[in-house]
Design a protein that fits this description.
heterodimer; A: alpha/beta; Rossmann fold; six-stranded mixed sheet; 22 strands; 34% helix; B: 342 residues; two-stranded antiparallel ribbon; 13 helices; 68% helix
Chain lengths: 492, 342
């Protein structure tokens, strides 16, 4: 049993996500698959699972050509995927037995479903993963970890020829994860190739026989035993060691300070100053606490401990409205879900937080809005016909420019950008970086990202966040990349 | 993420696309004008001022309720309690005047307060307790339908009725209150029509041109984006339900003034007619979203259709089927033909 991928490419419109991936998964190996957000991991998995079709390249499964057009075709061929979002794998309102038998239900057979006939089979599926829950327990009543194990039990019942797991341990405790690992090792010994996507170095150290890294749609590293873990992280994050392409701006006085701030349970408290005129990048892997930190600064969650001050005065926003009123702005990580209003045109998307500045006696002044939008289109090189363009007609990069234009509309004290380059092409990324640096003088700017190169391109100062705590801090122009990478990949 | 990148799709054949855009934008208006032309040709009296006033009067209360429910649709919600709010307001007005022998102001104030209170409770249920909007307002609908029966032990309210405690209600509807339903300005235009027009203008201006209306549309389109832009989403949602309750209670006041008694079965069809008007409004000018102008035109559309059919002696029992057909056609224009499919 083996999967061969050769020269796989995938384009979405003008955006190329996979640029010729070669990957061979051999029987009886667990391959850890690493890559930053947007590297193309999920796209690759979705092609193998029959959700997307490739733009180019070939796949063979056990030597036979393999090109699934639907997820169920992939499943019939023996490719089993456990998705990252656990609740997508199970039906919460059904009990354990029904969840385990759901493929059987959908496949047809007797019109009458009799629990009795399926009980032994379902129990055997549970025993295989060592899960001890009653078959009649409703999934909604089970902890997340048990739900995940039910999903995995169901996946294993398909007799996988290839098993793909997308961050399966993100909800599991250590002992639960250990149980999963034992099952996976059993499968490996039976000769099943396993592709294991994870950002957890601990899992990878424990389990992987091999590490493959993906970056910008290409395989950038392929490591076999003995595994070079920091080499893998370096390959995943990019090896271009250019010095920052910009001059370091001398920082002004601190604008926002945090003392003893704790954003993740169990993390060490962190102290940080965000200084005027300075662009600070906080870099960390998924789960390092970047988004939690940003949300704390923006009033979306309360700090677990610690205090913040803004321009010397206590700062404890209870709501994003408080933060915006205080001059702390944030462009959220999830552009589609958290920033873009799909029914609005370009201009209305730009002005949304500052309607007061574009209205008179409460009535919107369309002329002022249009003027601001035209200004933004020119300043950020937004590719659009004009202020009236529906936002959905813009590409990802241009939508991100609109989001940035939104928060550059009024003077900020602190501007926070959470993963500003997700799904953004290189040209737009350059424009956004230039606009950010050009306007940075009168505020403190904080960029959160998981890609070290993006941070180097943009920041005056880079801080590494890992498990909710600050690990290393370096200034542009005097970067020790190895130390940064090491700090990022350190297991807690 | 790559998955969210727009896939450039081939534009459909040019003329087909144009035709579709035209149909989406003007389909309902063309239908409306065609219908008016047909009735006018068949029945010359159809276009007379007298008949037009009858049409406007017949749709005014439905339209007022529909304008309120439009506000809840704009924030991505729905208010099913409007019909029973109107019915409760009618009972409350009657009770204040007939049983408590109160004046016009007291009756109107009691109704408006009731509408605002119900809206507030709806809003709190939905926002604070996270009850799904349809369920919260459905529950409220049942609650109000039952509550309004209790003070009079299930009987209609009229002067001279005997109360549960054995006394006889001596109060009566004040002349001023009745004038709200029966007086005609310049001997032609009923007050309810003026109230409807005023509310239609006010809510159009509010939703389309003010910053608060803008935020409400943003909430309906992407509540998380609105929240992250600093909007207090919860307060706006509660406000939308309060506007809806207020409109429904205004409708109830006008209905009470028109029928002149606290009739328990009045206002039975208000909810469905108002919801239909608001949904037909999606299709007007191809808006594809809730809007006050569309809602008013939607209400007018249904009113003209029923009036014309009545003039042409169509049997009354076909009315609901015809209303349903119009609604389905309008929804087809909005959703089936719309090019803004995600």
């Amino acid at each position: 049993m083996s999967l061969q991928i050769e020269g796989m490419t995938k384009r979405f419109g003008t955006n190329t996500v996979l640029r010729g991936v070669d990957l061979a998964l051999a029987p009886g190996t667990i391959t850890a698959f690493m890559g930053a957000n947007g590297a193309g991991k999920s796209t690759l998995v979705k092609i193998v699972a029959g959700v997307h079709s490739a733009s180019g390249g070939t796949m063979t499964l056990d030597g036979r050509p393999f090109a699934p057009v639907t997820p169920s075709a992939a499943l019939r061929a023996g490719v089993v995927v456990v998705h990252q979002i656990i609740n997508d794998n199970v039906v919460l309102t059904m009990d354990v037995l029904e969840n385990l038998m759901i493929d059987r239900l959908c496949a047809g057979g007797s019109p009458i479903f009799r629990r009795r006939t399926h009980r032994d089979e379902a129990q055997a599926m549970l025993d295989r993963v060592g899960l001890d829950v009653p078959l009649s327990a409703e999934l909604a009543d089970l902890p997340l970890a048990d739900r995940q194990m039910v999903a995995i039990a169901r996946a294993l019942a398909h007799d996988p020829k290839l098993l793909i797991l997308d961050e399966p341990t993100s909800a599991l405790s250590d002992s639960e994860a250990e149980r999963l690992f034992a099952v996976l090792e059993g499968l490996r010994d039976q000769g099943v190739p396993i592709l294991y996507i994870s950002h957890r170095m601990g899992d990878i150290r424990r389990l992987a026989d091999r590490i493959v890294t993906l970056r910008d749609g290409r395989v950038t590293g392929d490591f076999s035993a003995p595994l070079d873990y920091s080499g893998a992280v370096r390959a995943m994050l990019g090896a271009a060691l250019d010095a920052a392409a910009h001059d370091r701006v001398p920082p002004g006085p601190p604008v926002l300070t945090a003392r003893g701030l704790r954003v993740l349970p169990g993390a060490a408290p962190l102290d940080i100053d965000l200084n005027a005129a300075e662009v600070t990048a906080i870099v960390g892997l998924v789960g390092a606490g970047k988004t939690e930190l940003a949300e704390t600064l923006y009033g979306l969650r309360r700090p677990l401990a610690g205090k913040m001050t803004l321009n010397g005065a206590p700062y404890a926003p209870r709501h994003p409205g408080d933060a915006v009123a205080a001059g702390v702005f944030m462009a959220a990580e999830d552009r589609t879900g958290g920033s873009i209003v799909p029914d609005f045109d370009l201009a209305r998307n730009v002005t949304l937080p500052f309607l007061g500045a574009f209205s008179q006696f409460g009535m919107m002044r369309r002329d002022r809005e249009a003027r601001r939008a035209s200004e933004a289109i020119a300043a950020l090189d937004i590719v659009a016909q004009g202020p009236d363009d529906p936002i959905a007609s813009l590409s990802g990069g241009n939508q991100q420019k609109v989001v940035l234009a939104r928060w550059l509309t009024r003077p900020a004290r602190v501007l926070i950008l959470d993963e500003p380059f997700q799904g953004v092409d290189i040209a737009a990324r350059r424009d956004i970086g230039r606009a950010l640096r050009a306007t940075a003088r009168d505020r403190a700017t904080l960029v959160l990202c998981s890609d070290l190169d993006e941070a180097i391109e943009l920041a005056d100062r880079i801080v590494i966040l890992s498990h909710g705590a600050l690990r290393a801090e370096q200034e542009a122009g005097a970067l020790d990349r190895t130390a940064l990478v090491h700090a990022m990949s350190a297991a807690a | 993420m790559p998955d969210t990148v727009l896939t450039a799709s081939e534009p459909p054949a040019r003329s087909g696309a144009d035709l579709r855009v035209l149909a989406v934008r003007w389909g309902l208006i063309v239908l409306l004008l065609g219908m008016v032309g047909f009735f006018a040709a068949a029945e010359p009296a159809f276009l007379s001022v007298r008949n037009m006033v009858i049409v406007l009067q017949s749709v005014s209360i439905v339209a007022i309720l529909a304008l309120g429910v439009t506000c809840t649709l704009v924030v991505g919600g729905f208010d099913l309690s409007i019909g029973s709010v109107a019915a409760s307001a009618l009972m409350a007005a009657s009770y204040v005047m007939v049983v408590w022998e109160g004046g016009t102001l007291a009756a109107v104030a009691a109704c408006l307060a009731l509408g605002l209170l119900v809206g507030l409770v709806n809003g709190l249920l939905i926002v604070k307790l996270r009850v799904p909007d349809l369920l919260a307002t459905l529950g409220m609908m049942f609650l109000l339908l039952g509550l309004q029966l209790i003070p009079t032990a299930g009987r209609s309210i009229a002067t001279g009725m005997s109360l549960p405690d054995g006394t006889v209600a001596e109060g009566r509807f004040t002349a001023t209150f009745l004038a709200l339903g029966r007086h005609r300005v310049w001997d032609t235009v009923p007050i309810s029509v003026l109230v409807m027009l005023a509310l239609a203008v006010a809510i159009t201006v509010f939703l389309t041109f003010t910053r608060w209306g803008r935020v409400m549309y943003a909430i309906g389109s992407n509540p998380q984006a609105a929240r992250l832009a600093g909007a207090n989403v919860e307060r706006y949602k509660i406000a939308a339900y309060m506007i809806s309750g207020l409109c429904a209670s205004i409708g109830g006041i006008l209905l009470a003034a028109r029928v002149g008694r606290g009739d328990v079965s009045s206002g039975n069809s208000l909810l469905l007619d108002a919801v239909a008007a608001a949904l037909i409004g999606f299709a007007v000018f191809g808006a594809g979203k809730p809007n006050a102008v569309g809602t008013a035109i939607g209400a007018l559309f249904v009113g003209l259709l029923l009036n014309g059919l009545t003039m042409m002696n169509a049997p009354y029992y076909t009315q609901d089927a015809i209303k349903g057909a119009v609604l389905v056609a309008a929804l087809m224009f909005t959703f089936g033909l719309s090019v803004r499919r995600s």
